[in-house]
Amino acid sequence: MLLAEIIWDINPTIIKIGEFELRWYGLMFAGGFLLGYQVITKIFKEEGKPEKDLDALLLTMILATVLGARIGHYVFYEWQHFGEDPLKFMADMLIPPYAGLASHGAGFGIVFALWFYSRKRADQSFLWILDRVAVTVALVGFFIRFGNLMNSEIVGKPTDVPWAFNFLRNFEFAQVPRHPSQLYEALSCLVLFVIMYSLWNKYKANLPDGLLSGIFFVWIFVLRFFYEFLKENQEAFEEGMSLNMGQILSIPMVLFGIFLLFKANENAKKKLNGVS
């Protein structure tokens, strides 16, 4: 029995002047990166890493996130349109405005970009930088998912839970109380950030390489797998599938996280034995 529902009627546009439009999603996206930059700056300072590398790292992260998420969206969710007009497909995929972003694509992009970044820096191994960036990505993930909530997008399935949201501005799924799946994921990211930052703040350089990123991938994508059961499918081709695309893509991410945890265990043993 439905006890209550939250009427969600937030305008996704904060202000519009002529062709200029400031949207909540863009503000959340930018705000997440700015706060994440402050966190990674603190990490670099306290671990004695050169702050001159931060600008290159920020640019790497922005490009990896945006391009990875955009390419991932087209490859994972719209690949069937490639044969219709390959040139238009490639242009839509790479040229703004970006109407579709896939978090799994961003994950793949970030991992590859950080591997490339670390190759040029002997004092910042791939797992070391991946661990530290994972802390900030959890924080950015909170802001991005909250931006999805402000956009009334990526909505959940109908439910009668007392905290159900009625997304009046989502005209495809309006008028029915639904799981606020964006909020579930946002809060999961925030809790993860607190846990990971606390671990880093307590142990810093004593953390075995791979631990934080392993926790990140397992936490985020195990929860993502189960949250998908509460969400509406994003694309028509997912209807009738036993597992949707988000769940299928989460499986290798979880396996990668488990691999990182095994590596962290090996690295911890090496530290105990005094092996560099």
TrEMBL record:
Q: Where does a 1,2-diacyl-sn-glycero-3-phospho-(1'-sn-glycerol) bind?
A: R145
Keywords assigned by UniProt, alphabetized: Cell membrane, Lipoprotein, Membrane, Transferase, Transmembrane, Transmembrane helix
One GO CC annotation, please? plasma membrane
Q: Name one GO molecular function term.
A: phosphatidylglycerol-prolipoprotein diacylglyceryl transferase activity
Top-level taxon of origin: Bacteria
Pathway in which this enzyme or protein is active: Protein modification; lipoprotein biosynthesis (diacylglyceryl transfer)
**Mind listing the GO biological process terms from this record?**
lipoprotein biosynthetic process
Where can this protein be found?
Cell membrane
Question: What EC designation does it have?
Answer: 2.5.1.145
**What is the uppermost EC class here?**
transferase
Q: Where are the transmembrane segments?
A: 24-44, 56-77, 97-117, 129-147, 183-200, 212-230, 242-262
Q: How does it sit in the membrane?
A: Multi-pass membrane protein
**What is this protein's function?**
Catalyzes the transfer of the diacylglyceryl group from phosphatidylglycerol to the sulfhydryl group of the N-terminal cysteine of a prolipoprotein, the first step in the formation of mature lipoproteins.
Instruction: Check the record and name the HAMAP family matching this protein.
Output: Lgt
Q: Which NCBIfam families match?
A: lgt (TIGR00544)
In its UniProt entry, what is this protein called?
Answer: Phosphatidylglycerol--prolipoprotein diacylglyceryl transferase
Instruction: Give the originating organism.
Output: Arcticibacterium luteifluviistationis
- Lineage of the organism: Bacteria, Pseudomonadati, Bacteroidota, Cytophagia, Cytophagales
Please state the gene responsible for encoding this protein. Answer: lgt
